[in-house]
Design brief:
4 domains; binds adenosine-5'-diphosphate; Dna Ligase, domain 1; D-amino Acid Aminotransferase, Chain A, domain 1; binds magnesium ion; 8-stranded antiparallel β-sheet; 22 strands; 37% helix; Rossmann fold; alpha+beta
Length: 505
């Protein structure tokens, strides 16, 4: 059963990514956008586009799918992608949901159930509990596991509803907080407990399975650099990971996924301690933000595979066909201010330029003049870089980040440049707790090399005037105080410095 038309129930970069894959396969594409997203460029990557009130409104999206005679819906990530209810609604309306079955979504979506399934599959989980009905019971469990523990939301995602607890004194207070946050974010207050593993790495395994029980792994992504339990840089292969551990993790991932009768693309997440013991933490039953990293090192187009699997095709790649080649990294470029506690920064993009060189891919949705709405995830662009080895990838990434220009909103490009030059990053010694010390170093570095805003503005203004003068062949430099030569030098210098930090507006 081949699809004729696919509705993409998402926005931003992933809506474009899916539209491109669908078109490459010869499909027609239907886009949706909300009133806040009328300027969203993904509309124009589609053959038809419809306005909806929200990316979460199941009835409206199904209505658009039927009206446009779409055969299938690709949910992207976030929003409705892991909602059992949505997959069921599609099934009822005879529209194919490009993802796993509603039953698999039910089991992966309840993280406490997924833990049990992993255990049944003989895969190590973090010492912990099922979902707990009361704070008193939870404290008992915490004491038997031993502090520190991590309170986690059974319905959780996106790093929300999680609280580490280091002692009994703070237990009830934090339990209440986690439960309330889980209730408001996911409509599900249930909490379970895990041992809080010290300074782990986050390593996840990509899998692909067809609807006939065939499944392969596409090796790992290391997503250890995180802020507030959310990924910031991802890479593959994981630096330093011993090969025997890698293979055990890959095989474990397939066992868990088979246990829940999973098909389509999915990811099994693990945390890994200092001695390379790995523990299952959850299943992401969808295409992930960081999927291009795997595409770059395996050469497999995961989104096209998702569509073909949903069309009922058998997997035509075997495990032996999947080979890792080179090293890839992804940088999540966000509209946020790294110098001000990563505060979100919405607004107009006044100028935008993508880097272009061998091994560089930009998955984004920006154009000069577009607006970044503040209601949605501030992800602007994913810069994905591949090299023959990790060292080459780092050097190439620095060049690409230098070429990438986003003016108009604050962004974290300068932070990535800083991280790539850090010794611990270069050695691959990053764990999920590393961010704290990295941010302290970054703050200090920023303070030491601080140039005041007014000086930056003046410098930029003078530079532009002087460039104009030079281009016009005139030797009449503008200056702040009449000392042209001095100001010429200083303004150039300052502009160079701002450029270096990717901040010139
Ligand atoms: P994970 O961190 O669970 O492995 P990803 O990093 O791929 O997965 O993305 C996290 C998921 O949470 C995605 O589905 C993303 O759309 C969603 N998400 C990210 N940030 C937010 C947010 N601020 N609010 C709601 N959902 C979010
Ligand atoms: P989410 O559904 O929000 O993605 P996860 O269970 O995947 O939640 O956890 C997100 C991150 O939180 C992990 O990548 C890891 O950094 C941290 N984390 C989760 N469980 C533990 C644990 N038991 N010990 C230490 N860190 C953990
Ligand atoms: Mg996760």
């Amino acid at each position: 059963m081949g699809f004729n038309k696919i509705l993409v129930a998402n926005r931003g970069e992933i809506a474009i990514r899916v539209a491109r894959a669908a078109k490459e396969l010869g499909k027609k594409v239907v886009a949706i956008y909300t009133p806040q997203d009328r300027g969203g460029i993904w509309r124009y990557f589609a053959d038809e586009a419809y306005e909806v009130s929200s990316y979460l409104n199941i009835d409206e999206i199904i209505y658009v799918a039927k009206k446009s005679k779409s055969d299938a819906i690709h949910p992207g990530y976030g929003f409705l992608s892991e909602k059992e209810e949505f997959a069921k609604a599609c099934e009822q309306e005879k529209i194919k949901f490009i993802g796993p079955s509603p039953e698999s979504l039910m089991m992966s979506g309840d993280k406490a159930i997924a833990r049990i399934k992993a255990q049944e599959a003989g895969v190590p989980v973090v010492p912990g509990s099922d979902a707990l009905e009361s704070a008193e019971k939870a404290l008992k469990v915490a004491k038997s596991i031993g502090f520190p523990v991590l309170l986690k939301a059974a319905g959780g995602g996106g790093g929300k509803g999680m609280r580490p607890v280091f002692s009994e004194d703070e237990f009830f207070h934090l339990f209440r907080q986690a439960s309330e946050e889980a209730k408001s974010a996911f409509g599900d207050p249930r909490i379970y407990i895990e041992k809080y593993i010290q300074e782990p790495k986050h390593i996840e395994i990509q899998i692909l399975g067809d609807e006939y029980g065939n499944m392969i792994y596409l090796f790992e992504r290391d997503c250890s650099l995180q802020r507030r339990n959310q990924k910031v840089i991802e890479e593959s292969p994981s630096p330093l990971l011993p090969n025997d551990v890698r293979l055990k993790m890959c095989e474990s991932a397939v066992r868990v996924m088979k246990k829940i009768n999973y098909f389509n693309a999915g990811t099994v997440e693990f945390i890994v301690d200092k001695d390379w013991n790995f523990y299952f933490i959850e299943i992401n039953a969808r295409i992930q933000v960081e999927h291009p990293v795997t595409e770059m090192v395996t050469g497999v187009d995961l989104v096209k595979r998702q569509i073909k699997i949903a069309e009922g095709e058998k997997l035509d790649i075997s495990q032996e066909d999947v080979k890792l080649s080179g090293h890839a990294m992804e940088f999540r470029i966000y509209a946020e201010d790294p110098e001000n506690d990563f505060m979100p920064s919405g607004g107009y993009i006044s100028f935008y330029k993508e880097p272009s060189m061998p091994g560089v891919r930009c998955d984004g949705w920006l154009y000069s003049g577009c607006q970044v709405p503040s209601q949605y995830d501030p992800l602007l662009l994913k810069l994905i870089v591949k090299g023959e080895n990790r060292e080459e990838t780092i050097r190439r990434s620095l060049l690409a980040l230098e070429e990438l220009k986003i003016y108009g909103v604050k962004n974290n490009i300068p932070f990535f440049k800083f991280v790539l030059n850090l010794e611990e990053f270069r050695k691959g010694e990053i764990n999920t707790w590393s961010m704290k010390s990295i941010l302290e170093k970054y703050k200090k570095w920023n303070e030491e090399s601080h140039v005041s805003d007014s000086l930056i503005l003046l410098g930029a203004y003078l530079t532009s005037k002087n460039i104009q003068a030079e281009l016009n062949g005139r030797n009449e430099y503008v200056s702040a105080n009449g000392k042209a030569s001095l100001w010429k030098v200083r303004s150039w210098k300052i502009a160079g410095r701002i450029e270096g930090r990717g901040q010139l507006k």
